[in-house]
């Protein structure tokens, strides 16, 4: 066998073991008994030790040195690029540190869930402090004297920097703030009101998952405290949550996670259990979940179809017609929760988190001051006070599991989705007519053919440029938001 063949055979098993580790995480969030938390943290640490050892195995370095990339086709060169990046990055992290991070974050995840349920920030802060310290050590090891936060961003968006994000967010923020102020100055449509049975929500959620192309024979839909997608290839699982006074929480969380899952399910089988057999970055991943959820799922055309499905499922929902339902789905309103935020305000929630986690990683924000810093920033940005921790610094699972550098990819995903949506509209001129029939196949098929099937073949920005035909930037997203909400709230007539 050639060095390349031996490397890919070895990498296949590493990727398979990583999928097993991911399944442990899925189980912890969905089905694991609470009393198993300590044992699970040991299991996760053991898996991370095995994976870390494989990723820095000296044979990987020898195989990489023996391979001449010029003898490989573009797929082979991309495989080697990704393996080399992982190898060089992982070698910088001591094995005992990687295992400690896996163990502590597994424990912290359980403690976060309990603290969130009990509205008890003090119970969570000690373990969060431990997570932050470990992640700072990891970031310092990766940074080689450079910026710690920039080093951590590479886990989620290779090639991105905090300075570049500052530039993007700086361009977005004034227009988003102005749009929000104009919208909130207009009369708001009514919120959905009533009682919506949880089991009925889940039946409709499964229908919506299939409507957007999720293959249930290679996946499943369960409930979790915080919705997420897990896995790749032929085993891609999603979760949602229900509220009997807010079915949109369940339905749009499901569509969002289906976007993630369809990306993974749509990747070419030739890349299965290889470095290219998964989404290339979290920003690109979020572009899929956000375009499914928002530009498609909250469009006037699709909500017209969804209105009928809601009435079939729940009976009278207190909304008179399709146009009123569209306005209610896209209602801009005060709220604390990022995942429940409207499109106008969502990115402002992300910018808050981006600034706070950068400060924590830099050591400028002690963990003991996090709640006060969050509450102060939220009130300054949104104009009202946080009422309880589960609506504030305890609402997200990310920091408990050490995902520092992840949050900005949500806003970056919106930027990417804006570019993709503009290109999709040009490629499928009768898109609205199809969505009005509940047919998403042309849209999801275009995304699969132009982006999803390629997996990690190209770098993140190249992936978006290849699919959309443009360099990614915030203008298409901002123009879409201003046009959509300007029409919804009659801003031009104001």
TrEMBL record:
Its EC number is 3.4.17.19. Binds 1 zinc ion per subunit. GO terms for biological process: proteolysis. It is an enzyme of class 3 (hydrolase). Coiled coil: none annotated. Pfam families: Peptidase_M32 (PF02074). InterPro entries: Peptidase_M32_Taq. GO terms for molecular function: metal ion binding; metallocarboxypeptidase activity. This is Metal-dependent carboxypeptidase. It comes from Salinihabitans flavidus.
